[in-house]
Automatic annotation (TrEMBL):
Native organism taxonomy: Bacteria, Pseudomonadati, Bacteroidota, Chitinophagia, Chitinophagales
Organism listed in the record: Phnomibacter ginsenosidimutans
Record protein name field: Amidohydrolase family protein
Pfam families: Amidohydro_3
GO cellular component: cytosol
A single GO molecular function term of this UniProt record: hydrolase activity, acting on carbon-nitrogen (but not peptide) bonds, in cyclic amides
Length: 502
């Protein structure tokens, strides 16, 4: 297998100045991100770039890293991350590095920081991973309409203000527009508003990523909406963390993928990302798709069709901290009522707490079990699905374990994906589907974001009980040519940069 590609990847080196210390990573299996078979070789990095790949002799005085036959891959790109908000307090970004992630993409679900703010924060407090961002529709609505007046359609003047701010962000390197249409900040926006913002995005070469308007009872209409946006704007559209969260439709992933394939054949550039867990992490309110938070019938429907109360755990609940770590079914038992009645109470109590404590921040978070394993595997195998975490710095184990879970559970154990294909979906495909340039490949001239993996030991360890447990098998991680993580530890280096679309 190695000989087939060995001749294609022979020495391709650049001149290295005497002042530039180079590193040669020897004796590795190179998974270059393309999806092609791995091959034996070495990789030289100098400064922040890859300068040689193939059969390479060491230079005098060069720093040598022995790969011992392990896999060298491009650094993983997390296309849906919520880690950025934690980097001020945790700039070492262990949640990302411990699973081989070197670039996180923030601004998801319609909420984003402005690029000037991100750049200023990175200058003030350097971080260990690269950061790219989308511009969030909800954030645009808040500046145009006021944070407390976004639960309605926008006016023409407000939409114009949003478009102007979006244009500014795109000119500064935003990847494009993100929406969180299932969440209340954007749920009430008219589809014409979304299309108008997407058209502004198209004018500047950006992309569209969406937590679609429904992942359960109205999912068919939500899929139609994102496909219509792609058709009307002719820009790539990505479905965030694709899933089927309605129990009645479990097992229908192949039918959905056929629909997406048909759309692609018709010229709509639709793609997706996904994470490898059958439970999500959000607010209790998403269990009420019609926003009827006082309806016992709606709560009953949620417990029977939208999630498993016995498998869904509260990870944050400010009104009653003793509920944290318990399932909804366990809380219902404590309260001596049905799970549906408990659901109604918890929504109401959380609302009351927010009103009494407007600066409290996150009030309630649930890890809701509502997906089907076979659907997850089918989505992973779709050629246009890349991988993501949708995670932060703890809480749901996906924040620390998504990428290593894929390598262990879906490559090594279930063999749903090959090593080469899994790495492709974490690297080059992720870069391609988000518009990131010169990352995601092991090739001369690309940025030296690299991860050395022991395929015999790689495994996620994060769990609901211990969501920050570090993964096994991620031996070393380089970010922009700097060793940032080794032997389960951050090295004390902070080489991360802002990654612009431009």
């Amino acid at each position: 297998m190695w000989r087939i590609f060995f001749s294609m990847m022979l020495i391709a080196s650049a001149n290295i100045s005497a002042a530039q210390q180079s590193t040669l990573i020897q004796q590795v299996l190179i998974a270059d991100g393309s999806g092609k078979p791995m091959y034996k070789g070495s990789v030289r990095i100098a400064g922040n770039r890859i300068v040689a790949v193939g059969s390479i002799k060491a230079l005098p005085g060069e720093n040598i890293v022995q790969g011992n036959g392990q896999i060298l891959a491009p650094g993983f790109i997390d296309t849906h991350s919520h880690l950025y908000g934690y980097l001020d307090e945790a700039p070492e970004a262990l949640a990302a590095l411990n699973q081989g992630v070197t670039t996180i993409i923030t601004g998801q679900d319609g909420e984003s920081d402005w690029i000037d703010s991100i750049k200023a924060q990175l200058a003030k407090r350097p971080v260990a991973v690269n950061v790219a961002t989308y511009t969030g529709q909800t954030s645009l609505r808040e500046i145009a309409m006021g944070a407390n007046d976004i639960y309605r359609s926008s006016t023409a003047k407000e939409l114009s203000t949003m478009q102007q701010k979006l244009q500014q962000e795109l000119q500064q390197g935003s990847l494009g527009l993100s929406t969180g249409l299932e969440y209340e900040g954007s749920f009430y926006s008219h589809p014409d508003e979304v299309v108008a913002l997407a058209k502004t995005t198209a004018q500047y070469g950006g992309r569209y990523m969406s937590h679609i308007r429904s992942e359960d009872i109205h999912m068919d209409a939500a899929i139609d909406e994102i496909l219509k946006i792609g058709q009307q704007t002719n820009i790539p559209v990505q479905i965030s963390h694709i899933k089927i969260a309605l129990k009645d439709k479990w097992g229908t992933a192949p039918a959905l993928l056929r629909k997406l394939d048909s759309a692609r054949k018709a010229g709509i550039m639709v793609t997706a990302d996904c994470y490898p867990y059958d439970f999500w992490n959000s607010t209790i309110r998403v269990l009420f798709p019609n926003k009827d938070f006082n309806s016992l019938a709606a709560a009953t429907y949620a417990t029977e069709h939208l999630f498993d109360p016995a498998g869904s755990v509260m990870v944050r609940y400010a009104p009653h901290k003793n509920y944290v770590g318990k399932t909804v079914a366990e809380i219902a038992q404590l309260r001596k009522e049905t799970a549906a009645q408990t659901l109604l109470y918890m929504v109401a109590a959380a609302d009351s707490f927010r009103k009494a404590n407007p600066d409290a921040g996150g009030v309630e978070t649930i890890m809701g079990k509502s997906m089907y394993e076979k659907d997850i595997a089918d989505f992973m195998q779709w050629p246009y699905t890349n991988m993501c975490s949708d995670g932060g710095n703890g809480g749901h184990p996906r924040g620390y374990g998504s990428f290593t879970r894929i390598l262990h559970q879906y490559v090594t154990v279930q063999k749903v994906l090959s090593w080469e294909l899994a790495i492709h979906k974490m690297t080059a495909l992720a870069a391609q589907q988000t518009g990131i340039q010169q990352r995601g490949r092991i090739a001369v001239g690309y940025f030296a974001d690299l991860v050395l993996i022991d395929p015999t030991t790689v495994k996620d360890n994060a769990s609901i009980a211990n969501p920050k447990a570090l993964s096994n098998g991620i031996q070393s991680v380089w970010v922009n040519g700097v060793l940032a993580y080794q032997q389960l530890q951050h090295t004390g280096k902070f080489p991360g940069v802002f990654v612009s679309r431009l």
